[in-house]
Amino acid sequence: MTDRILLALLPIVLIIAMGQLMRRRRFLEERFWPQAERLSYYVLLPCLFFNGLATADLGDIPVTRLALTLISATCIVSALVVLARPAFRVDGPAFTSVFQGSVRFNNYVGVTLTTGLFGAAGLPLAAISNAALVPTVNILAILVFSRFGMAGLSLRGIAVQLVTNPLLVASFAGIAFQASGLHIPAGIEPALRALGSASLPLGLLCVGAALDFSTAKQWVGPVLRSSVVKFALLPVATLLSATAFGLTGDALTTALLFQTLPTASSAYILARQLGGDAPLMAGIIATQTILALAALPLALLMLLP
């Protein structure tokens, strides 16, 4: 199992490093990176979420228990992080990055790990986890940005962000499509799948390009605190929630895996769009991706009798 986890994370580390190298060597013009971020956020990631949720085969998965476990643990930990904000000793925009680093997750790694562990049966488990967590973390993140981000969103602004957020719209549309029993036309589904697949390398290249090691010393405290929440507090909260809702077996393993995943590249893109501390967010993503090499196997040890 450890080998599978390492193999899933290693390509992500390498792609982030490639993005940093490309930026340093000026392989592409500087104006490329903001446009790439926009493409990923508004087109590629929504295609990934919609297609994954709309085409999932749910089978005999304990959908309600799995969703309740993930949502309750995420909400509880999110509330604790907001309450503990003074202890983080960072300004508002930086706190939004700490918050995202505490609760967001890398969809791509989650899908790779669950399919690697459970084969074809892992795909619907991953899809349900995404369906529960993507709307939850995006709604919570937008609320935090509205309070602490530089954009300073009003109540009307919050509502607009929620109903127009491409990740939320794609997630709810995918869930609705799945519930309707409809099927994506044969000629369209491969296009959606291809566009969604492109979001991983492009998003990670943007993360690597955004890394600024001249400010590395400023990252230490925020990165450490968000990583403790992500890799210790959130998995423990998930295990307690799973016990409360009676979640067991492969679904429990999947829930624990998803809650111990490193922060996704979409967190950086959201930070850029909504007035967060994007360089700090990039540092958290890169650092957590490396830390996850050890954190994921350790989290699974909690399942041993």
UniProtKB/TrEMBL annotation:
GO terms for biological process: transmembrane transport. The keyword Transport applies. It is found in: Cell membrane. The keyword Magnesium does not apply. InterPro entries: Mem_transp_PIN-like (IPR004776), Na+/solute_symporter_sf (IPR038770). Keywords: Cell membrane, Membrane, Transmembrane, Transmembrane helix, Transport. The chain crosses the membrane at residues 39-59, 66-88, 123-146, 158-179, 191-211, 232-258, 278-304. Gene3D superfamilies: 1.20.1530.20. It is a multi-pass membrane protein. It comes from the Bacteria. One of its GO terms (cellular component) is plasma membrane. PANTHER family: AUXIN EFFLUX CARRIER FAMILY PROTEIN. Belongs to the auxin efflux carrier (TC 2.A.69) family. This is Transporter.
